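Task 17 of the worksheet. Students: predict the tertiary structure of the chain below and write it out as structure tokens. Keep your answer in the requested format; marks are given for formatting as well as content.
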Amino acid sequence: MAKLLIVEDDKAINDLMVRTLSMNGHQCLAAYTGGEALLMVKKETVDLILLDINLPDMDGFAVKKRLADLPVIYVTARDGIGDRIRGLDGGAEDYIVKPFHIQELISRVGVVLRRYKREDIFCLGQARVDLLSSRVYLDEKEIDLTKREFELLKSLIYNKNITMTREQLLNAAWGWDYEGDERTVDVHVQRLRKKLNWERYIKTVYKTGYRLEIPL
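Model answer:
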């Protein structure tokens, strides 16, 4: 059904989640540190991440910031309202407190996957984007995008009507370990606007980043 990444340093809990969600038809990968998780998402296409906050090398909030547009459910023992608000305001899809009932975990994973079902074809204005084949058309004529431009475009599409910071877009297109200037995002956004004729759709959010704004 979906490929899930379980990021949990407690091996017994990690094994339990992997075993249970696998029995429900999902393909599960396991990571035990934040660094391991970040390396794994560079190699694997993951649909959803179940992320602990208390990890041995970095906290889950820091990991989430580097995951760009990937959906995350926090699964953690930290039950304070401040942590819950921080997690949800930071872009998490859900927040589950340990100890949890395993059936609740299965249900919440299902809800997020249904909500986050990604479309294969995205159309806006005169442009059509095939997200599976990485091909883009304007007035039914194929146009060339660089790999970075397409990754940037994909992140904007998956987060349509949501403001993305320059840091988030940089992580999505160049990787979290990129050490260049965030302003390179501005250059690539300008190119996308011109190539797709999306000047009125890709909005600049002052001192923050960009938002792909589409009619609701």
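Marker's comment: The two ends are 29 Å apart (CA to CA). The longest strand covers residues 3-7.
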